[in-house]
Structures are given as structure tokens and as C-alpha cells.
UniProtKB/TrEMBL annotation:
Keyword GTP-binding: no
Protein known as: Phosphohydrolase
Pfam families membership: HD (PF01966), HD_5 (PF13487)
GO molecular function, one term: hydrolase activity
Cited PROSITE patterns: HD_GYP
Amino acid sequence: MKRELRVSLFDLVTSLSNAMDLVSQDIVNHHKRVAYIALKIAEEMNLRVKDINNIVLAGILHDVGALSFRERLFAREYEFSNGNLHAEVGYQLLKDFAPMQKMAQMVRFHHLPWKDGAGQSFEGEEVPIGGHILHLADRVEILINRREEILGQTENIVSIIQKGDSTLYCPSVVDAFCGLADKEYFWLDIVSPNIEQILSQSTEISSIELDLMDILDFTRMFSQIIDYRSSFTATHSSGVGATAEAIARLIGLSERECKKMRIAGNLHDLGKLAIPKEILEKPDKLQVNEFNVIRSHTYHTYRVLDAIPGFREITEWAAYHHEKLDGTGYPFHIKGEDISLGARIMAVADIFTAITEDRPYRTGLEKEKVLTILKKKVEENALDERVVTVLENHYDEVNDIRFCAQSEAYADYQEFGKESAATKLDECTKTNE
């Protein structure tokens, strides 16, 4: 009997952080460094272990709401306005996943200034101390020049932070930071290439495990982070996941395997976090170099997910969705029997969803045209004939499942857009006051 899938929450969260880091070499490990700084400050303040764990996890995901390359780089400026924009978006993305509700609140307020105590609450809501710790930790990390030796920078960093005391930062957080600042190990850990290992060994987070249904809920959140970067693909992963699960069930896979197929569908385009939005939404034909960037996304999906223990099947099913039976797919050029049934299902689900879903620039194709395209790919030895036949025989059922999943996802996307628009309007109003 196969062991029930259980995965460390820390492994899942760091994998998302690693995927976000693919945007640019300039931001690699920013999240983890902030999480480490926040960890040590929280320990210095003698906070409870449970609260420290939540602060660390929030630190690893604090910029999850910065959905574009420009936003991520803009947030790296020490002095910048409208920080609450991506903080609020991050909160909206995280808040509906129950194990992350407390972390979502910290993410929401990680750019809120202290303002001589006024920052203890926001619009009548108490601001968690973790939000103020993340605020200072984030700014400390921004001040570090990665091209220079770290110990020679510490005095200047401390001086800048102290100048913001009571106006920008909670005084007790500043005091805790200053208590750490004369310890060399603290700074050397921050810039260590082994920062993920240091984080894991310094907390009890690795012992927090998610079961199969928790993982499924978590990856639904993942898929929103992936898809919401572009209105072109705002519901794509939800459609692929639902379609792949439906086909898997019709083919006769176990309930456990069907749920894993849904998870893989939610994550199959994770590597697109490395693709600039300008390329994802380019209306004209892609240049060769741009298409090469697009083709890299499955490789990144594989490498990010492959680091998660227990995810082997899910990783292959998710990352091999552009492999072809004749070996001409990418990125590994796997062929024939070396491509698992799960990966074959995912390849069909991805193409089926892409050509049936409505996008801003065109409506989805009708049944006859869809089947013509899929059958042609079977003839070209790209797609599995058995999988396509099952889809054809149950076309209306599978398409209804796909449509319902994407309709639900679109409603969530619209609600997300309303929340984001309200935040932007609020920020613009404050900026103009």
C-alpha cells in the first residue's frame, strides 16, 4: 500500500520563493534573507515559537503580490511609495488558504510605517508585530550591497535604520535589530549561499506537514500566483488541472492519483514566473529568442518542483507537458514509453484547455475543430491516441468540467481584481493628499 502523500510546508513555500526568484538574478534569495533577518529579530524579542514560524513563512512569501518584474525591482528601492499595493495583493492571494491566514496579515502590513505608534493599527484593525518585523527586515536586506564584503557595511546599515526609528519602524523591533547587529554570524548568515538550509535548521517549520488535500488547496493558491500575472492566462491552470483530473478518472487512475493529477495541473506552468509579462502578452509573432524564453518554462517547472521530497510523480506530470511521443518535445526530448501516462494526460489537457478557453484576443474553438487539432497531433506522434480517444468519447463531460472550473476561477479573478483596484485607488488618493 502506498504511503499517503505528506509534504513539508517549508518545502512548498521555499519552492514558490525559488520560482519567484527566477524573474531576475538581482532578487535571488531576497525572500529567504528577509525571512532570516525577521527570524533572528523575533528570537531576540522572545516571541513564541509558533509566532516565529509564521513570521518566517510570511518572510519567504512577503513579495508574492509583486506580480511583475518591474514591481519586484521597484520594491528593492529603499525609499519608494505605494508599497501597500503589492502587500495588499499578496494578502489577497494568501488569505483564503487557511494555514496561511496569519501570515497573510503580516504580508499585508509589511510596508506599513510605524508613525510614532499610529502603525499599531490600520483602519481599526490591529497590525501584528510580525508585519513590523518584516518591514524592518525587508529594508535591512535592501540596504545590503551584494557586490561588497558584508561586515564593512553593517555600521552604515544600522545608522540608516536608526534614523527611521519611531517614524518608519517600531522601536522595539529596532532595539532587537541593534542587539543583533554587532554579531558577525548574523550578517554572514544573511549573505550565505546556504541561506535556505540555515533557515530550515533554525526553525521547526520543516516538521509542519500538509496532507494531500492541504497540498491541493495550497497549489490552487499557487496557480493564482502563476496565472494572475496576465489576463491572457488568468484561469488556464485551473482548466488544465480540472481537465487532467477528469481524464485521469475516466482512464481509471485511483482517486489518489487523480488528486495528484489536479495538483500537477495547478503547477504545470510554474516556470512561467520566469517569463517577462511583455513576452507572455506580446500580440505579434515571437522572435526566436523570445520563443526560446517561453520554451524554458517547463525546465524551470521541473527544477523547482524536483526539490520537493515526495513530489517525483507530480513533478514529471507537471513538467513534461510539452514532451512529445516522437521525442521532439521539450525540454528533455523524452520519447515513447519513457513518457508516463500522467504526463501524456497532462499534455492533452494543456492543449485542450488552451484551445477551448476564451482569451481576451479570441474565443475558444468549437468541438469539431478541437478534435481535428488533437487527432492531427496523434497522427504526428505527438499526443497519446488512447488519451485523446477517451477525451473524444467523453468530450462534453470533460469540457463541462473544464468550463465550470474556469468559470469559478474567473469569478475569483474578478473579485481579486476588484480588491486590487480598490487598493490602487486608495493608494492614489493617499499619494495625492
